[in-house]
Specification:
The protein is of the alpha+beta class and about 450 residues long. It has helices at about 5-15, 80-95, 125-130, 140-155, 155-160, 195-210, 250-255, 280-320, 325-330, 335-345, 350-360, 390-405, 445-455; strands at about 30-35, 35-40, 45, 55-60, 65-70, 100-105, 115-120, 135-140, 160-170, 170-180, 180-190, 215-220, 235, 370-375, 380-390, 410-420, 425-435. This is GspL cytoplasmic actin-ATPase-like domain-containing protein.
Length: about 450
């Protein structure tokens, strides 16, 4: 492929991805090696030229150490992979290696599932990494970014039962083997010298161990000269001249990096840590919306009720008040006390008092009790008598005499108690109800009623 065609492809990819022009503008995707940051055209980037955020970083394999976990290990999550990788780094590189930044990855399912991590292990890269973290959106190993580009550009190769990817950077070869499109192993191999011949010699034993019919893709940069005819079973991804460039072909790493996700081989953590809470948060939002709607409805109902009350009050104030005839009202309604007094005056007091006095006399016309008071409730037709007696028999005899009189009913002793201060005799009270017709209204003279009440047999 000619350089002009390669440049045209670069511009086409940049336009398709909506990136800024590769020359003379602020970069978004950058390359990081031991010398520092560079853009796709090889221009070195100072810290002052970095974007505030959204930087996609591609890391040279010279800065990294790959690790692959053994098949069958129970490492379900990214944190489990990190802990296992830190343990291996501490075992092989010392305790200080347990603090290296890690990019865990996991691919496949079931028996084909493999996982591992890349560690940022280059001396002095830790400080550089700390300074870059505030600007980063993603940070991927170069070989992994090339693998993603190969899967997009070569779908047939990615679906093959067995395949391999050879990523070369100067004197370093990163060898990746795949089975049914799932990454199975990652190895770093040193070249005797960064020449095409040394690369071909290093590839020969690796290719011999692959199953027959497997295809290997070759990509990278940093060789001392362009690669001639590749070994059998090897196909160069992009132009052969790109292997001799100082940096990888932008076609392999200018694609916008996907947002970091769980165990995706990115040094940055997932950008959506709350994604697992989206449904509970949606439920809470719907509940809050329902409560807000209910409160709004109640406020509307209260406002409507207040407006209706104001309207009724205004209508009542506007209408003329009805005139009240106070004379007619006073004539139709009498006070309760006046009504009771009127009823009391209509009672046959002479007959009532004569009956009370006659009931207090015995057969010899001698007083059995001494009356102390009479309380009449005309509205209820009730009489309460209070008096003094020598014993209980006299009290009962008086109650019996009153009960035999016409118009007297429910004559009962209400209270009997001894005199205060130890004096002889009893103090008592009788309660009775008056019938509508008394003796006088029945045509009986007062004397006859009194003598009948004093007789032993009473009235016939």
């Amino acid at each position: 492929m000619s350089p002009s065609m390669n440049e045209a492809r670069r511009e086409a990819v940049a336009n398709a991805l909506g990136r800024w022009p590769l020359r003379g503008a602020e970069p978004r995707s950058l390359w990081l090696d031991a010398q520092g940051l560079a853009d796709a055209d090889g221009h070195r980037i100072a810290d002052a030229e970095l974007p505030a955020s959204g930087l996609d970083l591609l890391l040279s394999e010279h800065l990294l150490t790959p690790l692959v976990a053994e098949a069958g290990l129970d490492l379900p999550g990214a944190e489990d992979i990190r802990q296992h990788a830190a343990h291996l780094l501490g075992h092989y590189h010392g305790p200080q290696a347990q603090g290296w930044p890690l990019a865990p990855w996991s691919q496949g399912h079931g028996a084909l599932r493999r996982c591992g991590a890349w560690a940022l292990s280059c001396a002095g890269s830790g400080e550089r990494w700390t300074a870059l973290q505030a600007h980063l959106r993603s940070a991927r190993p170069a070989s992994l970014a090339c693998l993603e580009a190969c899967r997009r550009q070569e779908p047939g190769w990615a679906r093959a039962p067995y395949a391999a990817l050879a990523w070369v950077e100067s004197g370093l070869l990163c060898w990746l083997e795949l089975q049914a499109g799932v990454l199975q192993s990652v190895r770093h191999l040193r070249l005797a010298e960064p020449t095409p011949e040394a690369l071909c010699r290093r590839l020969q034993p690796l290719l011999a161990r692959l199953p027959a019919g497997s295809e290997t893709l070759l990509a990278g940069c940093g060789l001392s000269a362009p690669l001639g005819p590749p070994p059998t079973g090897v196909r160069v991804l992009g132009s052969p001249e790109a292997l001799a460039a100082a940096r990888p072909d932008p076609l392999l790493w200018a694609w916008p990096a996907p947002a970091p996700r769980e165990a995706s081989g990115d040094f940055r953590p997932p950008v959506q840590p709350l994604a697992r809470w989206r449904w509970p948060l949606l439920g809470v939002a719907v509940l809050c919306l329902g409560l807000a709607a209910q409160e709004a409805w109640q406020a509307h109902a209260q406002r409507q009720f207040a407006q209706d009350s104001v309207s009724r009050l205004q209508a009542r104030q506007a209408s003329p008040a009805p005139r009240v005839d106070r004379g007619a009202k006073a004539g139709t309604a009498e006070p309760k006390a006046l009504l009771e007094a009127r009823q009391s005056l209509h009672l046959p007091w002479p007959v009532l008092l004569a009956q009370v006095e006659a009931a207090a006399l015995d057969e010899q016309q001698r007083p059995r009790v001494a009356w102390l008071g009479l309380d009449l409730q005309a509205a209820r037709a009730e009489v309460r008598l209070e008096g003094q007696a020598e014993d209980r028999s006299q009290i009962l005899a008086v109650a019996d005499a009153l009960a035999r009189l016409p118009g007297w009913t429910e004559v009962l002793p209400a209270a009997i108690q001894a005199e205060e201060g130890g004096r002889p005799g009893l103090r008592f009270s009788l309660q009775a109800r008056l019938a509508p017709a008394l003796a006088a209204e029945a045509g009986m003279p007062v004397g006859a009623a009194a003598s009948a009440a004093s007789m032993p047999g009473g009235l016939p």
